[in-house]
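Anyone up for a design puzzle?
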């Protein structure tokens, strides 16, 4: 079962976290980098590339979500977690307990006993009703878990944002991220991707943008 269930997981089309169909050559978090930090994740036939833990990025990919955790913030984008590192960002393994409002559509559902987990880039998630999804410790007997691997599906198109008031690209990106964060606070948006996208569009419209 693809991680697109209306009741369990919302597609992050409005966040531009999935710009192309999921396939073995997909590389998440295409930010500036030195050398080749990519790691291939074949587990459960997930077959995606991700930047390795410890890689330091000069900036965050567009559409990254700011996630409050402890006394600070982490950042999430397409299954990749970052924490601030001086004036840069380092890729980390997500801490157990951190919450993310929505998961991208290319996560894999994994059954361990009678419990269905969501797997993405080495991390396991369980639904946290009303709050999104929580990172949990790898379940016991995970080596014998049964994965339900989706066939590639073309994600919804990335919305086009037009600045009606001549806003600069930097301001547009800042406003978009603010609207993403606001939309993620709406409970209905956590359960339905269409609601999430409409919330972002309404927020951007109020800031002087047309979203198509």
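Challenge accepted. My sequence:
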């Amino acid at each position: 079962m693809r991680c697109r269930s209306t009741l369990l997981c919302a597609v992050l089309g409005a966040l531009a976290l999935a710009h192309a169909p999921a396939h073995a050559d997909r590389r998440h978090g295409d930010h500036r980098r030195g050398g080749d930090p990519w790691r291939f994740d074949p587990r459960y036939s997930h077959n995606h590339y991700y930047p390795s833990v410890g890689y330091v990025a000069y900036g965050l990919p567009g559409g990254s979500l700011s996630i409050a955790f402890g006394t600070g913030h982490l950042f999430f984008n397409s299954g990749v977690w970052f924490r601030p590192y001086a004036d840069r960002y380092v890729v980390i393994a997500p801490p157990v307990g951190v919450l993310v409002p929505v998961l991208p559509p290319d996560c894999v559902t994994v059954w361990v006993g009678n419990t269905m987990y969501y797997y993405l880039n080495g991390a396991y998630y369980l639904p946290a009703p009303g709050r999104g999804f929580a990172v949990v410790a790898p379940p016991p007997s995970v080596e014998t878990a049964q994965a339900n691997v989706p066939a590639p599906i073309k994600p919804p198109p990335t919305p086009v944002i037009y600045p009606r008031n001549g806003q600069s690209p930097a301001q547009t990106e800042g406003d978009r991220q603010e609207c993403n964060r606001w939309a993620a606070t709406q409970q209905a948006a956590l359960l339905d991707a269409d609601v999430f996208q409409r919330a972002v569009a309404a927020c951007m419209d109020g800031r002087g943008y047309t979203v198509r």
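A detail worth pointing out: The two ends are 29 Å apart (CA to CA).
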